[in-house]
Design brief:
Layout lengths: L15 H13 L11 H8 L3 H13 L3 E4 L3 E4 L4 H22 L5 H19 L3 H19 L2 H21 L7 H14 L3 H13 L2 H4 L23
Antiparallel strand pairs: 1-2
Helix pairs in contact: 1-3, 1-7, 4-6, 4-7, 4-9, 5-6, 5-8, 6-7, 8-9
Length: 238
Amino acid sequence: MPVPRGRGLVSRSLLREDAYRAIRDAIVDGTLAPGERLNDTDLVEWLGVSRTPVREALARLEQAGLVQTKPGRYTMVSPLDVRAARNARSVTAVMHELAVREALPNLSGAELDAMREANTRFADALRRDDVDAAIAADDDFHGVLVTACANGALQDVLERYTPVLRRLERLRFASLSGRESVAQHDRIIQLCAAGDAAGAAAATRANWETLAPLLETPPTDDDPARLDPTVATPAGDG
């Protein structure tokens, strides 16, 4: 899909971070498809910013593995890489486990309520087969603990690797087979409310590990992972 034709998505008064997040989100949700060429002029017009924040955003996205650049030739959205997504899932699982351990000693009742509310939205989105809403609610659920842990290094790691994982989820799967996650979330909330840091951390990691079978399913003929023959496909752990 070409770069959207609307003008001025990002206000000129906003920082370069907004340009980065707008392009990143468009890649993650599939608006900008794997293999699509990215033109500075189109992005500048779409976002309503100068070339500098666009080029800085593309450089960051290249570091995150979402964009590929060949100087003087092209910049494009990276093809899907299942192996990279598996690695991202392993890293995010460990980081979320650590977030629980660090957040729990000071977790408030309001934060527990926020987790319950996010899980209610998550369950509702799954019932409606709304993948985007389900992923957003799932991010909100886990985001309560990530914010509460107040660990900037942990948050930086998740900022880098979560988009890689979410991108493959959105593009490869038309719906979420994650209804068991509603009960897993409830269990995490119960353990957090009880002050059981070890139990809550283990339950959180187990929740993220449920993505493993999805990432190890061989792609079918119409799978977006086949958009580029160089895309890595999983061959088992190790």
